[in-house]
Amino acid sequence: MDSWLSVDVTTANVLSRDNRGSVRGVKTTIEKLPDKVLLNIFSYLSHKEICSMSRVCRKWRTIAYNTSLWYSVSLRPEISGLHVTSLDFLLSLISVRFGSSLRYIELPIELITHTVLHELANRCPNLTHMLLDFSTAMQLHDFSELQAFPTKLKYLCVCLSEVIFMEGFMRKIYNFINGLEILHLIGTYEKVEEEEEEIYEVINVHKLKSATPNLRVINLYGINFIDDSHIDAFSSNCIQLECLAVNYCSKVTGSTMKTLFQRSKRLRCLLMNQTNLISEYLMQVEWEKSSIQELDISGTDLSTECLIDMLVRIPNLKFLSAGQMNGFNDTVLSSFMEMGNVRNLIALNLDYSDNLSDEGLYKFLSRYGHQLQGLSLAGMPHITDQLWNTVLPVLNNVIIMVMGTQERLSGNVLVDQLMDGIATNCPRLERLELKWDPDNLRFSDKSQKAIDIFRVKCLKLKCLVLSDGRYYEIVKANFERADRLTVVRTTTCCSVSNYYLLQNYKDLIFN
């Protein structure tokens, strides 16, 4: 039995009175808890833990088989999912445990067979979200006998293989997925080598778009064959399109952006991080007629002229991510303030924008900082804690902040003073990341008091990310003593982003 079961309840003395009025100690064990309470406890466990608990006794086996515990299931063990040893065992799970409660499932390549898909279609009528992971595939199963597929899917995520052509499988499911509203196609960006290799179009986007006319959200992430023609294809058929993400699709240049906005009148979110946008194409877009509210152009080579032209013409920009851009400088920021509409901006990311001065940022933040909910100014050595301490009084509505650089600085960051300023001015803060090198953080023996004040005043804080070092250990221990065990994390395993503020953030999550 797992250690978490060795709780005080097994040995607790419950005071009670017998008929003669005497007080005696009664031993209460976890087995005496009502089924509803046990079911609630089980709901906090992973499916791997639930399977272990089912071996304890018949009662717990019955609780573990309750279908309400199996509404969202991952069968990818490498991503903290349940390891299924055989297809027969999976088919048993589908019929006995999943049933009508199943809403979401993740399947690895070895479990994606026509038999499994048939069972899901027949026994899980409320399945609406599915992830199919073909990323490690060297060959596909035979889908020639595939006659059924879940028909109520609203969300489909397909992790593509580098070498396996998907068209044989996709042809079989086109008739079942016309109700899709959210589509993720995830490429192998992380596996791409610097040397040019032959690029395969492993999925036919032009046929796929014809089968999915109701898409609201399209996420094409890190796919080496996606280019402007594929964006044009989706825009020609998906009139409901609200959000398009093509992050890390290096062949996207923006040549069909003008047509995209002419067709997709509802498009309000466009994410193009690390693409190869060409300034000339984006200057041809009729931004002033668009409904765009959220824009990510980070890591692109757009010129200063193009950036000014875009930002002064977008009528209702709420979210702007424009980090890692040489063209983004004080002139762009000044033009945006003077000629653009900044009144609705709630999120700004200018990470690694070395051509921005602290004076230019101060002018912008002192005027508009009060309306920002997300602010990320990381990776700039000249933006120190001095600027942050100056602007913190106007950042009273901020929910997300990212600051600091991993580069070693000539000066030091007085982190106690900074934390005190954040605690005093940012009561709504939920996520904070300090990227500074631990050797640059200076704190005193009274640091615990500053951390205490920060922890007590920022009660909504969900995530505090710090570089691993002595200060991280002090902060982590402080929060753990207050039973806030999961708040403090390191930069090696966690990062904070303004993306949490996107209207379609939950729809854009994959993996």
UniProtKB/TrEMBL annotation:
SMART domains, alphabetized: FBOX (SM00256)
Gene Ontology terms describing biological process: positive regulation of protein ubiquitination
Occurrences of domain F-box (ranges): 27-73
Gene3D superfamilies the record matches: Ribonuclease Inhibitor
PROSITE patterns listed in its UniProt record: FBOX (PS50181)
Signal sequence interval, chain numbering: none
Domain of life: Eukaryota
Xref: InterPro entries: F-box-like_dom_sf, F-box_dom, LRR_dom_sf
SUPFAM superfamilies reported for this sequence: F-box domain, RNI-like
PANTHER family to which the protein is assigned, alphabetical: F-BOX INVOLVED IN POLYQ PATHOGENESIS, ISOFORM A, F-BOX ONLY PROTEIN 33
The protein, known as: F-box domain-containing protein
Organism: Acyrthosiphon pisum
